[in-house]
Amino acid sequence: MLITRLVVLMVAGLLAAGPVQAQVSDGIVKIGVLNDQSSLYADLAGQGSVVAARMAVADYGAAAKGLKVEIVFADHQNKADVGSQIARQWYDAEKVDLIIDVPNSGVALAVNQITREKKKAFIVSSAASSDLTGKACSPNTVHWTYDTWALANGTGNAIVKTGGDSWYFITADYAFGHALERDTEAVVLKSGGKVLGKVRHPLNNQDFSSFLLQAQASKAKIIGLANAGGDTTNAIKQGAEFGIVKGGQNFAGLLVFLTDVHALGLEKAQGLIFTESFYWDMNDKTRAFAKRFAELNRGIHPTMIHAGVYAGTLHYLKAVEALKSDDGTNVIAKMKEMATDDPLFGKGQIRVDGRKIHPMYLVEVKKPSESKYPWDYYKIRTTIPVEQAFRPLDQGGCELVKK
Amino acid sequence: MSIFGVPVQALFGQLLIGLINGSFYALLSLGLSVIFGLLNIINFAHGALYMMGAFVAYFLLQYAGLGYWWALVLSPVVVGLVGIVIERTTLKRLYQLDHLYGLLLTFGFALVIQGVFRHEYGSSGLPYAMPAQLSGGQNLGFMFLPNYRAWVIVVSLTVCLGTWYVIERTKLGAYLRAATENPTLVRAFGINVPRMITLTYGFGVGLAALAGVLAAPIYQVNPLMGADLIIVVFAVVVIGGLGSILGSIITGFTLGVVEGLTKVFYPEASNTVIFVIMALVLLVKPTGLFGRAQ
Amino acid sequence: MTAATREYVEAGALAPAAAATPRHQVVAFLVMVAFFVVAPFVFYPVFLMKALCFALFACAFNLLIGYVGLLSFGHAAFLGTAGYGAAHAAKVWGLPPELAILAGTVASAGLGLVVGALAIRSRGIYFANITLAFAQMIYFFCVQAKFTGGEDGIQAVPRGTLFGVLDLRPTLTMYFVVLAIFLLGFLVIYRAIHSPFGQVLKAVRENEPRAVSLGYKPEQYKLLAFVLSATLSGLAGGMKALVFQLASLTDVHWTMSGEVVLMTLLGGLGTVFGPVVGAFVMVTLEHYLAQLGAWVTIVQGVIFIVCVLTFRRGIVGELARVLRKPL
Fold it and tell me: Does the interface ipTM go beyond 0.90?
């Protein structure tokens, strides 16, 4: 009765006798894109993720293979209770088989739990918490694009190695910010760097002048921003005002997306260093994808989240086809069994704890003069090889990992 | 030399920053105070109108090519007109009722305005360039002070003191104050009281918009910029004393400084310290520091 | 009390000197019960449970504004605190559901006592502000405290077995338990209003000095009403934590306080059934509009505006006026 809006990417299902369909529940594979459509994370995921999922279904060739796939989406408004209610309803009343995306670790953890109870499937692209493949790991969940450990490790390590060995942290005062700060600090210290100080600011803070002043006074080479979204962009914007970069210090964004850079503009964001798992301008395949994506998404180019949704959906459908069933637990197991291969992340693999692994990239934002065309924002500083990019399997505390 | 582990030099820097933030609080609470003190309306839409001010500045730049200096004048006028329309069509009907209704009505407007802007513009925020004449800064020794921030203090002080002067020391202000206490009598003197009330509301709203324009180059122009700010400004006005113009100005600047100091010693609490102070003040002096008993 | 406040209470349930329960209210009550008994077979039960929790919350809030005339802008503190209390009790201490909900309710009652004692001295807008200030402090505490889990909240709260007998995991079972608790809370409020206590409250609201001259201590009555309101809000919050198996910051955020005001206003301030209707409408609205994001806020704002301007009695209030009987 209570519906989420159905955007049906339908296949003319004239399949009376498709064997694939026979074991697929109700004959349809229903995918639900659940994310924030209206606030903090609407641009980096939002409607773009729905576009990415649709593209994946089209590219997979569902029609030709005789598989009916339907996509629905909903806005969880960054609230754990709204998100979990939608997830429950989708699974109980609307026969959704897979939930994908879900930014905001709190919501993701809630959906993770519900998916496990109902034995469905969950692919996380947006949320960051490394607990999803750690203590909260589940046989029904795959964590695709990135996580806090990868970010901390990638950015921290790589920056220290390239000379940024003294740090000052400006941290958002909530669990995610603390975790990011803690993980990055550990990495910095291990690589031989120093942490000269840290300051915590309230979440969704407007004015950073006071904290920036403290960071300046510390004379640390790198100011690590353990926050996200509006907090990060505000800090950077005001950093430009206070002459942080001109004064010789550099910002390290610990969670930054292409759309944040776009919102800031190169003038303010130049020199920012951070880690991503995908950039649209890396090679011809990614460029081709980006071109098609932008056309469908009001010109906005794909972030790594969108790439994760695309690749995750693609791999899921391949697993469903191979298994000839969309039973959640089995499909996830199959996804771990099959190697992944898509035009965006290349060849890769999903570990037993649900962690999808691929190389990560340390990127730097270009100066305005270096940018030659729209959305030409990054230069890739280094590639972090796949063996080093993610937390080692035995360190997560995941019960699925046999000792 | 240090106080509680913080070098005195650094403390001066933080105090100055606190003063800058206090400028915003003062300007915004001035608008709220003018509206409440003279009209008995609790304008919960103030935060949303502040946000509109910033957005109008953005639109002026984007679509009309009119820069910051134009926006400083035009944006308050435009948003002030919006305020006047709101007052004329809706608020007017609530004057005889309990002033909690005014609060609920303006709260409703705040939701609508914020919702519409959020729907159109998402929440990431839009960039607004710093005007060239005000960029750069001065090295004061204990800190690097961006010129723009100094400008904010200057504008705020000027506008606040100017408004206070007009209301407390001029004939126009006297009429306004009299009209609040006894509208019928003032009307009998031939003064168009409803029009005065409307214009005053427009002026108060214009002040909010001015604060928005001032904020645009330094904070992200985004639909939620006023949402959490409104309850803080509310607290400032209540502490200063609802209806006291001078109270709001002084409290605004002072609380900005207090918040700034909190950011040094206990930064996580910087969002909450103002509410703690409000609770304490209300328990001791229920009408606020400078407020008159009603 | 101004003529204005009198207006919105006019439609209220305080029938003059009604010693026996008016028949039409009994009928209305039975209709409500019948609806809720049948509803889970038609509507999605989890959605209904959400509506019931908020209905209780709104009824508790209405006690304060409709019958005492005090607008609290920080009631979310009581909803959320009980939620965290119950969630913690069930998950970490392993208490059975009835004790977990009780723990949450007691926490809110205690909080209500403290806040109430300090806030009662003020009235009108100052009262609203003090409650808001305290609510913000509670919010800050919830963000900082370890046990609340900050932004993630307390997740995977077990529903447990009620009285050691009834497994609450099946949705329908949980639903009827929630309905029972809701009806209990509702009847407590009804009884409180239609009792000597309620009459004194009415007297205090209408003419405080005269009440004082008759020997009543208004502060005590107001405080008692405040604590009762806080306790029942806590009951709603504790219940909600077990229904959704999660306690989060949303429930202590000041916008939640705004929502309960809206529900009560929409349903009808000072009416008996108004808050239930208002809560139900708001929850339905949010559900339908959820995928349209910002539209929820816009529609809520429009409802506020329309209600304040032309619909001050709310849905049930207007209905009561048409029927010429208090509802």
Answer: no
